[in-house]
Write a structure and sequence with these properties.
Four copies of one chain form a homotetramer.
Chain A (H helix, E strand, L loop, with lengths): L1 E4 L5 H13 L3 E6 L4 E6 L4 H9 L4 E5 L19 E3 L2 E3 L5 E5 L6 H14 L3 E3 L17 H13 L3 E5 L6 H7 L2 E4 L7 H8 L5 E4 L6 H13 L5 E5 L17 H8 L4 E3 L1 H5 L5 H10 L4 E5 L17 H23 L2 H4 L1
Parallel strand pairs in A: 7-8, 7-14, 8-9, 9-10, 10-11, 11-12, 12-13, 13-14
Antiparallel strand pairs in A: 1-3, 1-4, 2-3, 5-6
Helix pairs in contact in A: 3-4, 3-11, 6-7, 10-11
Chain lengths: ~350, ~350, ~350, ~350
């Protein structure tokens, strides 16, 4: 920790703060600058509590931690990238994993058609919402258990793993029963009871970054899941909220190399939710591959104009196929870059 | 709805879109502009679904709703301001209601001391967290049921109503058992299962705006609660996330008059979470009263430097008392402005 | 400066960084933590250059300055609040100074009417744009010198000081010739040649915070003006850009107490530009007074519906008069709080 | 224009608004909805003025324009992509143009070394600042004319075109004398007198998006330049300001396909300023090529640790060479995708 004393802090105040820091089990180094005194605290202890306590002193300007606030998810803790198996796909290894499917499971016919189209074009994981988080209480809220069953059936029929969102602790078990991977949506990125609950389940988790979650907060939310017992977490950047209105959100694509440095967990991107516009997705998808994400999630629907949700950002089956074909040479380059030994790679 | 067709949309495309809108039960008015065709849709129907469907057509530039997406919380639906009783306090009426207490309930001695200080200075509702949402899994997570009991005991001892946060559907009943008012925290503003659950409970709810929730989203989240049966919702602006780092968040104080126009629900402010700094709070509190909020929530602790959470933004008892005394003439002006009949007032 | 070395930095790298810092004239304190080494640098030197140089080393995680990057505008440099005379008004002293007038000077009749209304209601400074920054090249760009003359004439006729915006270095002299105070608009907050130019002029300057300028950047821009010779700078918070769309911008009202701690310069607020909506302004204005700003700028127009710019946020003369009357008791409280000696005040 | 009347607007108010719109030369269509009346205005006229006038009526909820506020820069006005020659490079055609060089021109030796390295690795345009916009008045402000001369000399020696920033109207001529392309920096994106001045010069302009400029505002700023006579404008996305602090800014990479739809002007990216971190740039650069930008600007310096500005984001010569080599297969794919006829391409 680095503690900056206020200008004009007295000798007594400085000593009192040092004493307090030592009581938390740290060694202190007091440095007298031209303007002010700065105290460095070294050692192991209850960092957050110490920071807040010291920061509460009126004579303290700021108290800042130096060490990372997370542990298990950090690349220092585990230098090798984590690989996560979902069905026959392995995320974080040598394939660019595409997850696709409708926003919501609507009917058996619809989800079956999606599964067929996804499998045919080279997707590996079928997505489809059964419990839907909707901004308005008057919007379609999902088929619930019936949707889970249909999704499972479609995945099995076309040899695809399936992923679906879980929104509340009371549904974790039933979603885990039907689904190969659990999705935590952007709005639940700091729903801590839910993070703890999926931490206790034997299913990989895809954790979406919140609309205004910092990268550090995303990692701390992943740490919740891992610390509660589940090491299989895939991070997903899906657009953050800014002042720009031409797209639904702004895709923070730089988060991929940033996260690759900070964590060993796989990172995927979701250009459908970030752009919100079908016709932009194929161009963005190329960048998603090129920057070295571990995979991508998109939406596809037999008839987007009739979709019960997210139609404007859903690809048609033909559009999805075209995009997947178009991505092939980029994925070849992606694979080549994965051959470089990790230590050298970044 | 107003639908803007893309430039160069053909007659067939326009007719097809009009037909589709009519199938949703709306009447259409097609307006041929210099540049493009705009279609106005009038009537009653499933707006969201229609908007998404129409917006999914490649020939459509944008599809925008005109009517408000919420109903029960709107001031059109209920022009008179809602008044909500919590213990002996009435929020939204002729008193400026101050809620205060520690961030977390820590010990019986601590919460008792807080209750005494809050009551003595003129606070009406005692706050104190028993279940704490913490960014890091390694931070103190609250005393849980033991905390609820201590809070209840302290409130009863000093004749204060109590409010505390509920973080998950499985805890709604127990929190409602001990607490006079349920708090939904900023991170749960779009935790829809939780909103539905508190909508089914016979306890007023204070709903905090999320860090990046728009005012419209806040109202839609309130609509979830009201639509599920609970009309007693107080909205709380507590700072939004921006690029500015001198304060923890930016207090969107303009949200008060904006919300007063849009909704009949009471609105309070939380200058402790917005600023994150104890010494700024008294000055901000004056503005909270002057702008006409229905109340305010702040934090106070017997010894902020030893607080288990949020010490830097907690007022000492002396500081809380001084602020409350300082606010008196502002509250007198506030009361005078409330005498103006509502119709004339804004 | 505090320099955090990367995890795993070698002894040689640490020594090399220390050597480099010493070459810049600083003393170094190297602190070996559990995870990493942190280096504190103490002394006087070319901070920015040293920070960038050290931060450029691949073995360095971050390099952060502790001391404030500005000098003359800081409250350490000059603890007493600065008072700035503009005509007969004194900003930063014992009056709450209201600047008002139309967005643009349009005609002699219009600006004369405005001046009369502003003076009658108690405003002290007449505003009116002669050179207008407009987002679109096709919008009205101002009457230029003719506008300056009319503004001056109107101010003189009603005994008001006048303020108007200067947009480019080539106009500084002419604007200074006609105007008592120069306004630097939000879009020019980092137009450094312009800041230098107004720094060389004998006229007080009102510097508006940019839409996404941090408080620190605002102070650095003020430092440009002061460092080039002009100590009379008034800061103006006028709303920042966020994701929220119900108002034109979000008024960062907390910036007032924050700035009062950081700088001795006066601070005013502009609720017209922050809200963009006439009917919200009176309620917000109360908060502007209560939080202790040194003044306020608003827009008023004889007929907002015919204004050549900013009509929706312009008050009618009647509306302006009503607001000023309504503010009187708040201004009385404001004056009382100014009687408290500065040392005790904040 | 679409005008939404407030709920409860009277027949007289609606008629009066319609009359006013007609006075501006538009035809009106009044549509009576379930909740409110909406008025569509069709025709040609002074849109901004009309919008502001109508929006100023208290009975009007909102007044929104449908047509684009810019003309010359729109893709409707000119469907074919604009190609801009700078020296021997052509931006917007069939080469991915890389601009590179130091943040600031420091010495003849330094800029000569940079030019050699840039040319050797395949860069086409040499960048280097002679007038530097610096947040602090105490930071290095550039070599000014001496810097321009050195930059020109280095460009000529290695057969590179040169680009440098112009910060104020009084320097436009001298910068145009030495430089092949003028750069307008992010902080000047709405410096309208400067935009007009470069609009009158016979040199292509690279216009950087401001830190919080919307895409629409960027296009309007480009429209200023084009409307004043200079059709050769290249747009540059260089990161926008958000709440995220791990990188200097967030690269809004989606702006590339969005701009490609809205405008015929070329679009380049600047991953150095968006990330602020040297080690992230090569990975981001791949995405810049893959998404189909027309080029890229980066910084390179013989010894970043001794750079007078922006060292942390400057590539070493070896790093720049390695990145350029690494990009080759991506650029091959880029070229292949450019062979697709424009009409089909997007």
């Amino acid at each position: 920790m680095i503690i900056s004393m206020k200008l004009g802090a007295t000798k007594e105040q400085i000593e009192s703060v040092c004493k307090k820091i030592e009581d938390f089990g740290y060694r202190v180094h007091s440095i007298v600058g031209e303007e002010r005194v700065v105290i460095a605290a070294v050692g192991k202890g209850d960092v957050t509590h110490c920071l807040e306590s010291i920061g509460s002193h009126d004579c303290v300007e700021s108290a800042v931690r130096i060490s990372a606030p997370y542990k298990f998810v950090s690349r220092q803790y585990k230098p090798d990238r984590t690989q996560i198996s979902v069905g026959k796909a392995v995320i974080g290894a040598d394939e660019f994993v595409v997850m696709a499917g409708p926003c919501s499971v609507e009917t058996e016919e619809q989800i079956m058609a999606c599964a067929e189209a996804v499998a045919a074009a080279g997707g590996k994981i079928l997505r489809g919402g059964a419990y839907k988080p909707r901004t308005s209480p008057y919007d379609f809220q999902g088929l619930e258990e019936e949707g889970l069953k249909l999704l499972r059936k479609a995945g099995d029929a076309y040899n695809l793993a399936v992923i679906t969102e879980v929104m509340t602790v009371t549904n974790v078990n039933i979603v885990a029963e039907y689904s190969d991977m659990l999705q935590i949506g952007a709005r639940n990125v700091q729903n801590f009871p839910l993070l703890k609950a999926v931490g206790r389940v034997d299913r990989p988790v895809m954790l979406k970054r919140g609309l205004c979650a910092t990268i550090k907060e995303l990692l701390l939310s992943a740490e919740y899941i891992v610390a509660h017992g589940n090491p299989n977490v895939v991070l997903c950047e899906r657009g953050i909220r800014t002042f720009e209105g031409e797209t639904r959100n702004v895709l923070d694509i730089q988060a991929v190399p940033v996260l690759n440095k900070m964590t060993h967990l796989p990172v995927i991107l979701d250009p459908a939710h970030s752009s919100g516009k079908r016709d932009l997705i194929p161009q963005i998808a190329r960048a998603c591959v090129a920057i070295g994400a571990d995979g991508m999630m998109v939406e596809t629907h037999p008839n987007p104009e009739s979709a019960w949700s997210d139609g404007p950002q859903s690809l048609t089956f033909a559009g999805f196929k075209k995009m997947m074909d178009d991505l092939k040479p980029y994925i070849d380059l992606w694979k080549a870059s994965r051959q470089v030994p990790v230590g050298v790679r970044s």
